[in-house]
Amino acid sequence: xxxxxxxxxxxxxxxxxxxxxxxxxxxxxxxxxxxxxxxxxxxxxxxxxxxxxxxxxxxxxxxxxxxxxxxxxxxxxxxxxxxxxxxxxxxxxxxxxxxxxxxxxxxxxxxxxxxxxxxxxxxxxxxxxxxxxxxxxxxxxxxxxxxxxxxxxxxxxxxxxxxxxxxxxxxxxxxxxxxxxxxxxxxxxxxxxxxxxxxxx
Length: 201
What we know:
By secondary structure, the protein is mostly helical. It has helices at residues 2-35, 84-92, 99-105, 121-128, 153-166, 169-185; strands spanning 41-47, 53-59, 109-111, 138-140. Strand 1 and strand 2 (53-59) form a beta hairpin. The chain is globular. The termini are far apart.
């Protein structure tokens, strides 16, 4: 029953989000185009519900000559590929905004396990243990507010499984509010998306 309510909430909130955030979308589009050559949006094949592939949308943060389908932290000297605007977008998580469209059309939900790359077979296998591949992936989720980029795959998959087990309206509200706090504090984000974790002094 809650799955139907959850989908209705996704549609309503994604429509409202697209309308309210349209001025920010426009500003970011202009900034990306002025900063570097290439398209505004970046498409990447990800695993969706029941391990069905879909193209996730992001604002492009890297140069067009960046090796494809390679996680940023696995690139040799990744800083050379990230654009100036891209570094800001990654740090602020604004590069994820186009996924509101993925939510509207039903590829994703607002809350759920983050969609794995098509070649992240180890993460997919771990999530299978917890049924985390059987629901819509999310813009944010329980794992994101409990470590984000810093989590090992086994821990991330287990947290995704905890979300599946406890999924409810209250759990989604909790994830949403804690995500806002996490983004503001930049908790668990590797700086600039390059795999270099911040060192607290």
